[in-house]
Design brief:
The protein is 26% helix and 11% strand. By secondary structure, it is of the alpha+beta class.
């Protein structure tokens, strides 16, 4: 078997899910599921599609989502999160949205977790994060040099 070669342009993973309290499973108010996801759950548990849909999902604002339960750290979490290990109990049958998360080599929640643990000098601290969505109006604030420059990540100042 050929030895695996890591090239510089390959994405690096900069987080360790085993050190995270499962922000991604807990702070979002829903995990949307597709028919394919429900079929995967049905196969995993050896039940029919209808049984899987009824047992493991619910309707939320017009979309099908995984059920949630009370959590020991956050308000509520995915029903499939093991609250002791903070790991997914259906990892091989998890929904597509979970499979693609975070969709990049860095996880913002893991970065916040590491930052706060360093700042607090405590490897056990868990910052309480809550995602809230709301409509806002854009407002441009002028200063002496014109509108304030907003930089995107990794953008260099000229």
């Amino acid at each position: 078997m050929a030895e695996r070669v890591i090239k510089d342009d390959q994405p690096r993973v900069y987080f360790d899910c085993n050190k995270c309290p499962a922000f991604c499973c807990s702070i979002y108010e829903r995990v949307a599921v597709t028919k394919r996801d429900i079929t995967r759950l049905a196969k995993h548990f050896g039940v029919t599609f209808a049984e899987a849909q009824q047992r493991y999902t619910t309707e939320y604002d017009g979309e099908r989502v995984l059920k949630r339960v009370k959590d020991v750290i956050f308000e509520r979490t995915c029903t499939f999160l093991d609250q002791k290990t903070r790991g997914c109990t259906i990892y091989h049958a998890r929904p597509g949205v979970c499979r693609s998360y975070p969709g990049r080599s860095r996880c913002a929640y893991y970065d916040v977790l590491r930052f706060e643990r360093i700042q607090q000098g405590d490897e056990n601290v868990v910052p309480q994060i809550k995602i809230t969505f709301r409509e806002v109006e854009e407002e441009v604030v002028d200063n002496a040099d014109g509108p304030e420059r907003i930089y995107e990540w990794d953008e260099k100042e000229e």
